[in-house]
Amino acid sequence: MKDKLIFFVFTVLFFCNTQFNIFHFIPKERFEYSKVEVSETLVIGKLLNSEQNGIFEDGGFTGIFYVDSNLSSKNVAGKKSYEKYINNEKPKKYSYWAYKSQIGGQAILYSLFEKAFGLDNMVNITIFRMFNSIFLSVLLTLFLVWVRNKYGMLTAIVTFLLILPNYWIFLYGKSAWWCSWVYFLPFVYSLFFFEKNNQKPDFKKYVIVFSVLFFIKFWFTGFEFITVFLISSAIPYIYYVFENKVSFYINFITRHIIILVVPLIATTLFQLYQFKLLTGSFQDGVNHLLDAYSRRANGGYSYSGEYSYLNTFKKYHADIVFRYIGGSFMTEDFIKLPFVIILAIGFCCSVFLYFKKIERRLVFTTWFSILAPLSWLILFKEHAHIHPHVDFFIWYCPFLILLILLISISITFYFKKANRF
């Protein structure tokens, strides 16, 4: 009963930190911005469009709902539509700019919720944000439950205390657009799956459940941070099952190809159907997806017109890594602590645990998981160049969460050793 109460408190504190920033761990300016950040106005535009014209109007895509004839700025138009939405107004649609790189599944579900319950719009958007905050909080708490089961309650408490100030995990946790929780869903599930079925895992069940979880991810956030998601989802598999045998590699690759391909095909076909509704052509959808990949992966891609300003953010590729280890993981309102510090502390703790022969498997798995964030910074460098306000989040999927666990295990070791004297 005591343990359940502690984990309930963890969930509540995570939720309050994400939804309300009660500890002020999130820098004030960033938290204010995250309340109605640009991406979330795409959801608002979709909700206005669905209210007046049906859920699959304009292909069902999220987008900018222009409430007047001023089409010069998407940011301004998005804020105007947000004001209209929360005031329960039904403005005339002068134009609609569809965001076609994601199917906008989260906004489709929100639209269904609105039509089913008919609540005040301010209540609706609050519920949608709380939904995302709760799911993120529950998944992080479940990770701590796994930590408790493996390493004890003290380690779980220390891990909680070290995770909480890392504001990049929580910054967009309530966002109706980003739905951060989906990036932890397969990772947390498989930790419990393999812990329970370590001797003889039911891989058929694993493939089926993971395919569903991957579909949920693609439905809610499309292909955003796709390589990060793929690698982070496989970390528990490697931690529990890894054997340096040909059979392991064959089974690992085969299972995860199935897990990826089935939901990928399903969501891609749905997205092409949306293009058919929007433009009347499946080929337009194929062309858009190919162009979107080129923009995300090609650092040499040149923007023009309204987006030409983005070219000024681009620098040499080597700068990306330095930028993403130089940013602060603690709120700059109090103190700036660059990521390189937590990396250095984590490395020292990893060396200590290795030579003490404590959780060597976890040490190796943790440092293998750094491939998840690095894959995005290297393969999708264009996105990393122009989205430093978001992309620091990928460090925690799940590399820095596991690194924090290694630090917690080291701290707990010294604490228990000190108590014996």
Walkthrough of the structure:
Helices cover 66% and strands 2% of the residues. The longest helix is centred in the middle third of the chain and has 34 residues, at 246-279. α10 (226-241) packs antiparallel against α11 (246-279) and α14 packs across α18. A two-stranded antiparallel ribbon has the order 1-2. With 421 residues, it is an all-alpha fold.
How is the topology of this model organized?
Layout: H1 2-20, H2 28-35, H3 38-53, E1 63-66, H4 74-86, E2 95-98, H5 105-117, H6 121-151, H7 153-163, H8 185-196, H9 203-221, H10 226-241, H11 246-279, H12 282-297, H13 318-326, H14 339-355, H15 360-368, H16 371-379, H17 381-386, H18 399-419
Antiparallel strand pairs: 1-2
Brief descriptors of the model:
globular; 421 residues; mainly alpha; two-stranded antiparallel sheet
Summarize the structure.
The protein is mainly α and 421 residues long. It has 18 helices and 2 strands.
Order of helices and strands: HHHEHEHHHHHHHHHHHHHH
Report the span from N to C terminus: 31 Å
Number of helices: 18
The largest beta-sheet arranges its strands as 1-2
What form results from the Cα inertia axes? globular
Number of strands: 2
Which percent range describes the beta-strand content? Answer: under 5%
Helical fraction: 55-70%
What structural class should be given to the helix and strand makeup?
mainly alpha
Q: How does the major sheet shape up?
A: 2 strands, antiparallel
* Low-pLDDT windows of residues: none
Q: In angstroms, what is the radius of gyration? A: 22 Å
State mean pLDDT (0 to 100 scale): 91
